Amino acid sequence: MFDGVARWWDGAELWLAQQWFPVQFVLVIAVLLPLCAGLAWVIHRGVDGVADLLVRSRRGDRTAAGGEGGDPGARS
């Protein structure tokens, strides 16, 4: 199975390398732009999720230790 994928990839790479440069550019951008945008969205959502978990755990530690548990940026 891996040999088939390797042959297909070699063929696609050879076909792309033989194209005129503007065609290469458009094809690469048409594939990479959505791929990179999707990956950036996934990373953004992951970092937001981890940050939310950390904030919740810090608030939980503060309330368990007898702290106010309110807004950490608020001053009395």
Walk me through what this model shows.
- There is one protein chain.
- The protein starts with a helix and ends in a 12-residue tail after the last helix.
- It has a domain at 21-63.
- It has two helices and no strands.
- It is mostly helical.
- The protein has helices at 2-17, 21-64.
Layout of SSEs?
Blueprint (H helix, E strand, L loop, with lengths): L1 H16 L3 H44 L12
Protein name: DUF4282 domain-containing protein
Keywords: Membrane, Transmembrane, Transmembrane helix
Organism: Saccharomonospora piscinae
Concise account of the structure shown:
By secondary structure, the chain is mainly alpha-helical. The protein has helices at 2-17, 21-64.
Proportion of strand residues? under 5%
Largest sheet geometry? none
Structural class: mainly alpha
Shape: elongated
- Stretches where pLDDT is under 50 for at least 5 consecutive residues are none
> Helix count?
2
What labels describe this entry?
76 residues, mainly alpha, 2 helices, elongated, membrane, DUF4282 domain-containing protein, transmembrane
